[in-house]
Each structure stands twice: as C-alpha cells, then as structure tokens.
Amino acid sequence: MAGRGIQDGHRARKRFGQNFLVDPGVIARILAAIPHKGELVEIGPGLGALTLPLAGRGDRVVAIELDRDVITRLRVKADAEGAGPRVEIVPQDALRLDLAALAETSALTPPLTIVGNLPYNIATALITRLLAQAERIDEMVFMVQKEVADRLAAAPGDSAYSRLSVLVSAQAEVEHLFDVPPGAFNPPPKVDSSIIRLTPRREPLIPAADWPRFERLVTAAFTQRRKTLRNNLKPLMPASTIEASGIDPSLRAQALDIPAFLTLARLLDPTD
Questions:
Q1: Mean pLDDT of 111-119
Q2: Helices (H), the chain
Q3: DSSP 8-class letter at 135
Q4: Which pLDDT band holds residue 5 (cuts at 50, 70, 90)?
C-alpha cells in the first residue's frame, strides 16, 4: 500500500498541486463522463489514473505535464501496460498552452476534447486561458476544487454567483456533474472536489466587439460583493445612467443576469 503522499514511488509535490486520484470507483465515474472521441488532450495526467484507462479503451491521449519526474514514471507505466503508442506526453506548462500549435505539432483535429484533474492553484486561470481559445474546443471535463465548481455553475441570486460565474457562463455551458471526497486522493486534499463539464457556446452570448467593455463592467460590478451597483459602478457611470437603462442601481451584482450586464456594458465607451 502506498504511503501518504507517495504513489508509485513518487512523492506528491506541493508546488505542482499534486494530489493523485486513487479511488477506482471515482475513476470509473470520471471515465464514464468523458466522451469517447478517438483523441483527447489531458491536462495534468499525473501517474496515469485516467490516462491509461483512456488509452486502454482506444483513445489517443496527448497529455500535458510539467513535472519531469512524473513524465518519466508515466512513460514507463504506459509502455508496461502496452498503452505507449496511444499516449503522447508533452512537457509543458498548461498555463502557456496554445491549442493551435498543439494541434499542429501533435496532429490533433480540432475542435478538441480536453480533460484533466486540474491543480487547484491554477484551475481558474487555466479555464480562462482555454476559453480564450474556445473556437478550438468541443468540450472540457475537469476535476476542480468544489468551491470553484460552485462558482462556475452558479446562477444569478446564488451565493456563489461571481465575476467568474458571469464571464465563464457567457462563453460556455457549465454542468456540475458530481462531487469527489478528499479520500479519493493520495495525499487527501483539505477540500472537496467536483467534476464539471464545460461546453463552449457556438453562438456567443457576448459579441466579440462587446467583450472588452463587458469584462470591464462585470469586473467593476463585483469589486465589492456587498456593495450595490450604484457604488461599484460609480467610476464608470452615474446611478442615473444605470436607472435609465431599466436596471435598479440599488441592486447588487449577484442579482443581474448576462443580458443585464451586457446592457450596462454597452453604455461604456468602447474606446476607453
């Protein structure tokens, strides 16, 4: 039996946010949520808990991994299980991932299906970076910290509804599939995890020309969650302008849906 924090002879590294998935039942549920597309991009394969079963069912897996020690161990395991020809490991920081370049160098056919157990310390930044390349993505199935999943899937009025909720849901449909307890990992994290599915919208809710001011407006609206639109948007527009648009300036940002945010965003000068 592996010791705490040690899996297949490798000690989990905190700086890489490593928590290795080891529960067979949870692994089976995640695999069932990942579509069989023939080829997949996996972010953070670790020691292959998902990589090797995915390759075993016939998918070609292009895995993005930064830890060179993990890369060496994963290659050995893939070869030992006969999955080597279907597993390509790209030694790269996922936060610098360029999907166009990856598709070309690894002979992938967009739109891509991307999966992975995301390190909690980069999950939000990574999802944001990937959605900026949404035209090359079919869908994404990720494990993230439950708190992040709750924010991603939150609707107007929910306590978890935030800037992240608005900006992500404007670009993708979000499904919170199921939760994963700490005991499914070695070492166990101090938080619960969740499996989510992100499907980029083929018809964007926000036109590209409006996106910069939409993002600016949403960011300002959530600057201080307990304050009203009147206060948070004061640097951008007076309360009278908010009211003239048909929106009550005494509301908090948590009460607004995407069309309401877009209405306010279009009142900003696009050249600012």
A1: 94
A2: 24-33, 51-56, 68-80, 99-105, 123-131, 146-153, 163-169, 211-221, 229-232, 239-244, 258-265
A3: G
A4: very low
In a domain, 74, yes or no: yes
Residues 172-188: what's their mean pLDDT? 94
User: 193-200 and 172-180 as β-strands: parallel, antiparallel, unpaired?
Assistant: antiparallel
77, burial (CB in 10 Å: exposed 0-12, middle 13-18, buried 19+)? middle
The CB-side HSE value for 177 (13 A sphere, CA atoms) comes to 20
92 and 214 housed in the same domain: no
Cis amide leading into 24 (omega within 30): no
pTM score:
0.90
Q: What is the DSSP string of 221-258?
A: HTSSTTSBHHHHTTTT--HHHHHHTT--TTSBGGG--H
In this structure, the answer to whether residues 49 and 99 fall within a common structural domain is: yes
What is the residue type of 10?
Answer: H
Q: Judge contact between 34 and 54, C-beta under 8 A.
A: yes
CA distances from 114 to 6, 62, 91, 239, 272 (A): 27, 9, 16, 43, 35
Number of domains in the chain: 2
Q: For position 244, which CATH number holds?
A: 1.10.8.100
Cα–chain-centroid distance for residue 270?
28
Range of the domain at 212: 208-265
Are 150 and 126 found together in one domain?
A: yes
**Residue 109 and residue 214 in one domain:** no
How confident is the model at residue 270, as a pLDDT? 77
Peptide bond into 111 cis (omega under 30): yes
| Separation between Cα atoms, residue 233 and residue 183, nearest integer Å | 44
Q: Is the dihedral of CA 84, 87, 88, 89 positive or negative?
A: negative
Is the same domain home to 167 and 84? yes
Distance between CA 221 and CA 229 in Å, rounded? 6
